[in-house]
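TICKET #2291
ISSUE: user wants both folds in one file
ATTACHMENT 1:
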Amino acid sequence: MNFGPGIIGAVLVAVLVSAGCLSAIFPEPVPEPVVVTPEPTPLPTTESPVATVPVSRMALQPTDIPSDYILKSRSDITYLEMDPVDHDLGWKAGYSVSYYRMNEEKYDMTGLRQVIQIYTLANMKKIYDIQKDTIESQTYETTAFYELPCPKIGDRTFAYRITDKINPLSLSTYTIIFTKKDVYEELTMGGTTTDYETLKGLAKTAADKIR
């Protein structure tokens, strides 16, 4: 009996498969291992809940102020200068700085003052509420009080303007108060040429100094 080459080849393949030889001659490809790169673990933030810089370094510097203002005074605020109520609220330190601008030819005399106070952190909302309530509850016989819109600065913000009731075109005084961390601040601008937009910018700069 004669077998064609096709039949012989088929029989040979069947024998090799049954004997396990075909897998040895033609091994199946081994899949490459999948490398999984772990996601980096974010580092926890360690920002302090209280200010860590000296109170004097939170004060606005001459380079922060418009160039036509002149430094008038800057000094620490002492414990004896503060009221007993502030002592009870945990007052720790304070600082004040003031600038002025004068132009005799334009009859311009404008002043800018910043007051910085550090208290116990747990009392900051109480301090803000007391200051805001005191401002709003004051009665002025000859002046008018107006609350002003102001972007949030720090943790809490309140702004207002005081003008003359009799002559609305007379001098105005602008004030912004805010708290951030354990710091309470007041910034006031008053005089013949005031600029509320400038005061808002200075308040933002002052808040950024609290770290």
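ATTACHMENT 2:
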Amino acid sequence: MAQQCMRVVGRVNDCKENGGTLDLSDCQLMQVPDAVFMLMKNTTLHSCTLAGNLITKIPPKLAMSFSLVTELNLSSNRISALPSEMSSCSQLETIDISANSFVQLPPVLIEISSLNKVNASKNFIADVEIEAMVGCTNLEHVNLEQNPLNKNVYEDLAKITSIRILLSPREQEEWEDLSV
């Protein structure tokens, strides 16, 4: 635990020195430590990586404290939802929520007008609010590879040309083949 704290404090200090890029990846964190918010109080954060941890929940405080972040990497955790406060991240351009436990694209992402790239690969997403996604004017790139998208959603996503959407080849489910 002490070693983990020292690693986090060291990385926060690195962030202060290197212009607002905080990398807390692979720190075995189960949550975002409150100390991070206190230590970063007077530092503008532009990029934040929390990848490769054991985090299940993103605290609303993250969005409120780091509202100017442009890049957020939450990949390879155990997150299944994002707090509604994320909408206050008005500068957020890129978010990586790949390899988590999402069953849908977080609705709050639609509210972030600056967002142009979303990586949501390797989740459990079966359904997507297609109209809402297409309505996001700045959204350019969405990765939905390796998700169990339902057939209609997959087909509708494949037709979208205004956004570059990455999809894995869809495997036909056994129950869908009713010709037997």
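RESOLUTION: both attachments delivered.
EXTRA DETAIL ON ATTACHMENT 2: Strands lie at 21-23, 47-49, 71-73, 94-96, 117-119, 141-143, 164-166.
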